[in-house]
Each structure stands twice: as C-alpha cells, then as structure tokens.
Design a protein that fits this description.
Length: about 160
C-alpha cells in the first residue's frame, strides 16, 4: 500500500490555516504554502506536482471564472480493498484529532467522511483501489449540495416516460 497520511493531514491543516477567499490567487498561495508546484494550467483547473510519497505525485484543482472550487489528491493506493478501507479509517482517525467530529459519514464498501468547516469542506473518499482527499470551497459545496438535494430529485420526479 502506498500512502503518506501524515503529510496529507499537514496539507489539510495548512489549507485551513490560510483563511483563503478561494480566488485563483489564493490557489497559488495555497500551492506555495504546502510547497507544491503548479505544473499545468488549463481552462478549468490546474495540475500540481506534490511532495507526497503516496500513490500519485500530483494533485488537481478545479478552477472556474477566477474561483478555485476544490483541490483533490490521492493519499492511498492498494489493490487490496481491505488495505484501502484500513487506510481510510487511519486517515479519518488522524483528521478527527485536528478537525473534530465530522459533519457526516457514509459507511459501506466505498466510505466517505466530510467536515464542513468555516474556511473549507474536507472530504476523505474511497474508490475501489484508492483513498483521496478533497479540500473544497464552501460556497461551491453549498451549490453542489443544493443540486444533489433539490435539483436532481426534482428532475427525477418530473421526468416523462419519454425521458426514462
């Protein structure tokens, strides 16, 4: 299993200490604060070269209209689902110490945990072979939550037979 849990926690804590406005300029300040280099910029984001010794040495950012919406990076990679789940639990426990009780948890085969904090929303998520961290702009997350909780159910309830 490839992982860098302590460094991932350090990156989260650095991001939370920035008190950023989530502007594109703040994204550059975040990258400098954690010691990561922006390697590529494109229309809706950027790729960063990290110092993580985990599964991937890069992070991705989603940036649109001058606003950084989130930064995401892999922390654990393993071909064994048990190792992924163990790593998820260990990373979550480390973050609990600094962030307190999470806003919500989703158990199961692909667990997820979330902290809604004043300056950022922090997710620890799993896929089949990896665990990743996402640090999200709170305003962007509110928009996503609204879409998930209101718009999608409304669309599903108002589908016609032709759309099914």
């Amino acid at each position: 299993m490839l992982s860098d849990l302590d460094r991932a926690v350090e990156v989260v804590n650095t991001a939370l200490a920035l008190n950023w406005t989530w502007s594109a300029d703040d994204f550059d300040r975040f990258a400098a604060a954690v010691g990561w280099t922006v390697t590529e910029r494109f229309e809706h984001g950027a790729t960063l070269d990290t110092d993580l010794s985990g599964p991937s040495c890069d992070a991705n950012a989603f940036i649109s209209e001058g606003t950084c919406n989130y930064v995401s990076f892999q922390v654990i990679k393993s071909d064994e689902s048990e190792s992924v789940l163990d790593g998820f639990a260990e990373l979550s426990d480390l973050l609990l110490v600094d962030l307190g009780e999470p806003t919500w948890r989703r158990p199961g085969a692909t667990p997820k945990i979330r902290w809604d904090l004043p300056t950022a929303v922090v997710f620890v998520c799993t896929l089949e072979t990896l665990v990743y961290l996402r640090i999200v702009n709170p305003e962007y997350q509110r928009e996503q939550d609204h879409f998930d909780e209101v718009v999608i159910p409304w669309m599903q309830a108002n589908q016609t037979d032709d759309e099914l």
